[in-house]
Specification:
Layout: E1 8-11, H1 16-28, E2 33-36, H2 47-52, E3 60-63, E4 66-69, H3 71-81, H4 93-106, H5 110-128, H6 134-155, H7 169-179, H8 193-206, H9 209-213, H10 215-227
Parallel strand pairs: 1-2
Antiparallel strand pairs: 1-3, 3-4
């Protein structure tokens, strides 16, 4: 019988969901191979990648012929398929439901609201050469502040991590989104000590992999700062 190989991941680490997937693999010591897909140069639109994912988006996972897209699904598959500590995606129904509750909410709250700030402040000006649309940016920041309020009041009100006493895939998805505005030099947790402490706990739980995963984002921030 042929030996089972680890999952193959197709990632662009400027993408928040890609970083979350990578952090899970690195934090759990799951053997894997990363294939870089540079969105900025259109590598996601090549025929080979389109065959892998017709939606032309990352991340994509291939595991012994099984292809899966969407970071939420990939992370839950990896936590279920591989021998990782149970806290990442608990088997007990109520605890698992808490993780599912956050990840469902995440898709229409933390994810779009954090991403929009980065898009308006960094991506669009970089692509078009136009100045930042301050009106749209202020609206996006207001929506993000509302999301951060809810993270504190709904998810972190009586526990150290979003879904309980230990880290889960939910924390990785959330922290990677909240880090994204740093690409524009904006720390959205600057005035939020509760969320700062949570971010530090997440960073401590995943170790050095946290900084490695975010190196591309830090490079964007530093290049932008050098131009100002």
């Amino acid at each position: 019988m042929a030996a089972r190989r680890g999952p193959q991941l197709y990632l662009d680490l400027l993408s928040q969901p890609c970083r979350a997937v990578l952090l899970l693999l690195e934090a759990t010591g799951t053997p894997h191979t990363v294939h870089s897909v540079a969105l900025r140069t259109g590598e996601n639109r090549t025929p080979d990648f389109t065959k892998l994912n017709p939606m032309q988006k990352v991340p994509v996972m291939e595991d012994n012929g099984f292809i899966l897209t969407e970071s939420d699904a990939i992370m839950k598959y990896l936590a279920t398929r591989y021998d990782v500590p149970e806290h990442w995606y608990p088997r007990q129904p109520e605890r698992r439901a808490r993780v599912d509750e956050y990840t469902a909410w995440h898709q229409t709250n933390t994810r779009p609201h954090s991403a929009r700030v980065f898009i308006l402040e960094v991506l669009l000006p970089g692509q078009t050469g136009s100045p930042v649309d301050e009106v749209r940016l202020l609206r996006a920041l207001s929506q993000l502040e509302d999301t951060l309020d809810k993270l504190e009041s709904m998810f972190l009100r009586r526990q150290p991590f979003l879904c309980g006493d230990d880290i889960s895939v939910a924390d990785l998805l959330a922290v990677c989104e909240i880090m994204q505005p740093l690409g524009g030099g904006r720390d959205v947790l600057q005035q939020r000590p509760q969320l700062q402490r949570w971010r530090s706990r997440v960073q401590e739980a995943v170790g050095e992999a946290f900084q490695r995963a975010h190196a591309v984002l830090y490079a964007v921030r530093d290049r932008r700062k050098a131009k100002l």
